[in-house]
Write a structure and sequence with these properties.
- By secondary structure, this protein is of the alpha+beta class.
- The chain has eight helices and eight strands, in the order H-E-H-H-E-E-E-E-H-E-E-H-H-H-H-E.
- It has a five-stranded mixed β-sheet with strand order 2-1-6-7-8.
- A hairpin with a 5-residue loop joins strand 4 and strand 5.
- Helix 6 crosses helix 7.
- The longest helix has 22 residues.
Length: about 210
């Protein structure tokens, strides 16, 4: 588990990570439907992501020292007895911060996945590149049959992230080139043989999927 997962904490963490990689924000409150099932996947996904992808559980931390987040409560363990805490105040702060940076986005209240990338080296103002981000409503996608399951989709998503990063590294390793979150999502969805509709129709469902250019 990384440091306090408000946006400032994430940017501090990203300062210590070099090279091209994809960034995933998981917006899952403990009170959400199936939250525990998603939560149990985090340690595995974080290990699986390797250098190609950073995964952040928004509003969670292994230690809240900030007095702003005095409402933090222990909600479970990541692995081997390492407790994790969650703060509604931290979660809300992060959502408010993202709403300022993500065009046309507002938190739905349901479990969400936001895909972006780390910033190029010529943008020192932020470690996060919020342009060309992609949003997915997880539970809605499962209900509609667009996603067969959260674990299966995430497995394909991490493989897609690895391929996208590796492709850019093959072109150049001297600079962080912009990657396309849309490509990663489309690849992960295309690998689902049970997808009930053509991919174009699934991507046209704006309640499930949104992709924007900054």
């Amino acid at each position: 588990m990384f440091a306090i997962n408000n946006i400032e904490g994430i940017e501090r963490q990203e300062q210590m990570i070099e090279g091209n990689h994809i960034i995933l924000f998981l917006l899952i409150k403990p009170s959400d439907l199936d939250a525990e099932k998603y939560f149990r996947q985090y340690h595995y996904l974080n290990c699986k992501s390797d250098k190609y992808c950073s995964i952040y559980l928004i509003g969670y931390s292994d230690k809240f020292d900030d007095k702003r987040y005095s409402d933090a409560v222990t909600v479970g363990e990541i692995n081997l007895g390492n407790e994790i805490q969650y703060s509604d105040t931290c979660f809300i702060d992060a959502c408010d911060n993202m709403k300022k940076r993500l065009k046309h986005w507002s938190y739905s209240g349901e479990p969400e996945l936001i895909v972006l990338q780390n910033s190029s080296v010529d943008n020192p103002r932020s470690q996060l590149d919020f342009s060309n981000y992609v949003y997915i409503d997880i539970n809605y996608g499962i209900e509609k049959g667009y996603l067969d399951s959260f674990p299966r989709f995430m497995e394909r998503l991490l493989e897609a992230a690895k391929q996208e990063v590796t492709a850019k590294e093959a072109v150049t390793s001297a600079n962080r080139k912009r990657m396309k979150a849309r490509n990663i999502i489309e690849f992960a969805l295309e690998q689902d043989e049970k997808l009930p509709k053509p991919l174009k129709k699934v991507l046209a469902d704006k309640t499930f999927y949104k992709s924007y250019r900054g």
